[in-house]
Amino acid sequence: MPFDFSGKRALVTGAGRGIGRDLAKALAAAGASVYALSATKANLDSLKEEIPSIQVIHVDLNDWKATRSAAETVGHIDFLVNNAAYSPEWCPFVDTPRENIQGVLDVNVMAAINLSQVFGKKMIEKGTGGAIVNVSSINGVRVMPGCVGYNLSKAAIDMLTKQTALELGPYNIRTNSVNPTVVMTDMGREHWGEPEKSQGILAQIPMGRFAEVREVVETIMFLLSDHASMVNGVVLPIEGGQLCN
Ligand code: NDP
What we know:
45% of the residues lie in helices and 15% in strands. The model has no long low-confidence stretch (mean pLDDT 97). The longest helix has 29 residues, at 98-126. The chain has a single domain, classed as NAD(P)-binding Rossmann-like Domain (Rossmann fold, 3-Layer(aba) Sandwich). The two termini are 29 Å apart. With 245 residues, it is of the alpha/beta class. It has a 7-stranded parallel beta sheet, sandwiched between helices. The chain is globular. It contains 8 helices and 7 strands. Residues 14, 16-20, 38-40, 43, 60-62, 83-86, 107, 135, 137, 180, 182-183, 185-188 line the site of NADPH dihydro-nicotinamide-adenine-dinucleotide phosphate (NDP).
């Protein structure tokens, strides 16, 4: 599907690596002015070197105030993609430390709330609508053992999607979630890289493979675009039918 985002301004979090990086590049290739936000400067430097038109924002999303200050410098945007997240080492529920859960919720949920507030307000004030995509996970709808914080964070992101769909929808600002199964980025490799770990989950997926980064990026582009102009509040699995299992 061809996308023309000329004249649009987009901000992508977690754009230093993985899905966020490829999304930032795809948005720029489609003509958007792109702000790429991430925590590790070296990753942003290499993105800037690759695509000089992309503006980079170096901030740790754990830091609510610093994130808000950085967002305030950006001005108006049309598209916000809350993609950044991390998934700590897995741990049985009964042994999971409070800090492990709180840390995940701070980055994966609170940062998305923070940015959705800042840019939601700007979008309302400008009055020209907008689109937000929250990158959730199949873990938001199907529980997996050993990652209570991550699972909670993705279920919360899906509810945040519905919250802003409801409250910002009247201003023609749409919010949707994408919920991929495993994607072989750094995060995917860390948890599912070993065949003995990946086989079980692959067996649940009727299509017999994991999702490609491209497949997630293109779904996000669709949801941002006017092709999806009546799609609001959707939690959209990208999982090859895994949830049918
Ligand atoms: P990666 O680990 O490859 O990349 C994560 C990105 O998020 C990095 O750029 C990282 O920054 C950034 N990030 C993490 N913590 C922070 C922070 N505190 N402040 C700023 N930036 C931060 O992950 P993926 O590309 O695989 O994941 C992207 C999204 O897709 C996430 O929301 C993830 O939960 C979701 N997802 C991934 C799946 C998978 O199997 N890979 C499956 C389902 C959903 P830095 O470059 O600085 O490290």
